[in-house]
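User: Glutathione S-transferase. Structure?
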Amino acid sequence: MLTVHHLRVSQSERIVWLCEELGIDYDLKLYRRDPFFSPQALKDLTEIGTAPVIQDGNLTMGESAACADYIIHKHGNGRLALPPSHPNYADYLYWFHYSNGSLQPGVSRMLTLKSAGIDTSNDVFKRYTERLHQYLLHIDNHLAKGNKWLAGDEFTAADIMTVFTLTTMRTFYSLDLSAYKNILPYLERNVQREAYKRYREKAEDADFPLMIEGPAPENFLEKVRRSAKA
Ligand SMILES: N[C@@H](CCC(=O)N[C@@H](CS)C(=O)NCC(=O)O)C(=O)O
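Assistant: Predicted structure:
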């Protein structure tokens, strides 16, 4: 039986959502942040200690893109990936990898710079702010061309990989998406999916805001820091 280890309010939501979309059997283990990073039980599973982690027989593996690919091909008969014979195969590959190769690092970098207290008038901060805008605009422009999903007409794992950064991740870095008029309805389409709703219930993330509105959501990090000081 496949086991999925999910840290609440984290990028492991992708893997729970994926399993729900595929309709496969899996055992879900839930963890809470302690207070911000992984709790010890999750840290003990891999050398890096981050979520997601999956276990399947003798295998224990992290990295959300690797976990997604593994589950799709080992347990999902390749569903939610496009095969090389599909006309949109390259789009699928591109957007699947863009999520963790460019977009997620783009937001994480801003989070790191801000957490380190960098002056926002600093040239490095300005350059990476502009780069993040490019990353988001790139998605927005692609959706504006009539692409319902990132790989075209079909919903795929490329969407599952991307939505975390445009939603839940915004609670760690208060990203304002108001300017991206095609991303917002795209997010709405994703969260309306029955499998997404099931992931939220099963992962006990349903009390957490969806974060699909334009204005920047409240910063979780600040909240944790404030409650630690109180
Ligand atoms: N590139 C990795 C990143 C994993 C990662 O940083 N996960 C975060 C959750 S968003 C985490 O586990 N944070 C807790 C910690 O670092 O202790 C992936 O895609 O799985």
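Residues 89-115 form the longest helix (27 residues). The first strand starts at residue 3 and ends at 7.
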